[in-house]
Amino acid sequence: MAKKVVLLLASLLLLTCLNGVETPGPASKDPPTRPPITTSDPASGSPVAPPTPTLRPSPPRRIVGTVRDAEDGRPLPGAPISVGGQTTQSDDRGAFTLDPVPLGAPISIQAEGYEEGRIPFAGSPVEIALHPRVITVTVRDRFTDQPLVGATVTLGERSAQTDEEGQALFCQVGEGASLIVQAEGYAGEEMIARGEPSLEIALHPTILTGTITDQATVQPIPEALIYVGDAIVSTDEEGVYRLENLPPDPVLIVKASGYRKSTIEVGPGFDPHIALEPLQVKGIYIPFGLLYRPDRVQKLMDLVDRTELNAVVVDVKGDRGRLAYPSQVPLARELGAELPGHVDLGEFLQLCQERGIYTIARLVVFADPLLAAGRPDLAVRTASGAFWADRKGLYWVDPFRQEAWEYNIAIAKEVAEMGFDEVQVDYVRFPSDGDIQSTRYSQPNTFEGRTQAIRGFFARFQEALRPLGVFTSADVFGLTLWVEEGDMGIGQRMEDVAPYVDYLCPMVYPSTFAPGALGYANPALHPYQVVYRSHQRGATRTQTRIRPWLQHFSLRGVEYDLERLLAQKQAAMDAGAPGWTFWNAWVSMMRRSSRQRSRRGVNCCLERRSLDGDAKAPPGLSPRGAWLCYSAILLTGTRARPRAAGR
Fold first, then answer.
1. How far apart are CA 408 and CA 424, in angstroms?
2. What strands, in cross-sheet order, belong to the sheet with 207-214?
3. Fewer Cβ neighbours under 10 Å: the N or C end of the chain?
4. Where does a domain end: 203, 225, 246?
């Protein structure tokens, strides 16, 4: 056998030599050279280079692989794998196979809760490791933008609590997965994952706590009211409030007597600790009749602009039952209560709002000849059955009759909705002058009956107007602050009125106090003492703020000049009152002689702010003349009265 192999090799060597191929000898280190292979063109006989050889593509190969978790190595079943238009899923062991594809073909792998994988096919077996998709969920308070600690984030059967930064982490979050976020005191929210690495959500609080304080003193304000939707809550003694079942995007209205009402839109960056601006009401009175003189009303508005005044009290329902606006209350329309020709109260309110003037709508309640005549069943009667009238000849309606309550309260609500800052009621009492002994009512005229009726009216008044967010006030006799046990025969006591209104407005006119009252032979000569002591006495009996009516008229031989008017105002301020208003039923104190003063003196007086305690009379004009200058602009155009009495 060995001989045959040797002979075969020798034959091959001989054949090579016969073909002319040289083989290098032992001493040659250069590779053998061969002449280039050429062919000839049959037509021309010219040599032609042979064609260049090309590489053939690798034949397609079958894909066999496994999909696993990159962190713990466990197989991932049900993962979609696609390549070259083919798609399959991994089985329970994470394994998969695909029809043959060329080398380098991109393989795309997806699995629920994992980052997508892409690799080029480099031959089987294919080992694919997918990294779990991690999502950071950050939860914040929608109003304060602060992180929420301890919020619960739920993903299917998994849940996590947010940390101090309001964050929770989840792995293997599939695209389109639903995450539910909940926290105590907040409305729950749902988020849908879209493949992003982080999600942020702001939860809307359903419970809101905070404080209401005085902007100037930073002291807490107890019994402030916070309105949100239909809910109303009040602050405690520490000025703390708590709102529950808060609606989305709430608007808070915060109201406290002695302060400007504040409207706050709650949103990102909201501070629940709210400071209210103190309000000192410095007002004058616009009687019913003046509303029919637009030029006079305009002058009053100009006066407010030039002085320390910032408020006006406007009669919208006078002591004859007439209304200064077109009411939609059915009974008012039936009675024809509107007296045409008045200024447009809507335009008036707009003007006041533009100038920052605080507006008070005054309503006379039980002194109402129009209602008494139109509804005789509600009228106060005499023993003979006739209408009873007071000294001014005005008919009254029975304070016991709740129909009379509801009529006036309906008007009060209408006026509040019109846009007045405050609704003030007057004559909420039984008659005080005239033949009182001849009055007949629907119920026995006893102390208990009278006080219960007045208390009942104010309770109903508060109930009806409180939801509207308007301030309320009640006018009472100045003596009411001093009489502790009786009702003066008119049913008017502090304890039956003050708890139901924002301001108690006593008419502390020194000239109306009888000789000897408060220890003064003539109280009219002691304006400062009467106002100051009355306020202090009332403040010991109620927590309701007391804002006095001050005397702007002369009575019983004592003329109230500038000095006495300013003394009253100073007394109110020194006593800590939240303001004051001057009362003058005729809006005029001008005497014939004062009308003869020069126009220059009038203008100079007004420009120097005669209401200001620091104001001084212009040269050549006495303090009394300076006050009369102020009064001059209040003239109604009718003949001046020698003096004006209080209520």
1. 12
2. 240-244, 207-214, 273-276
3. N
4. 203
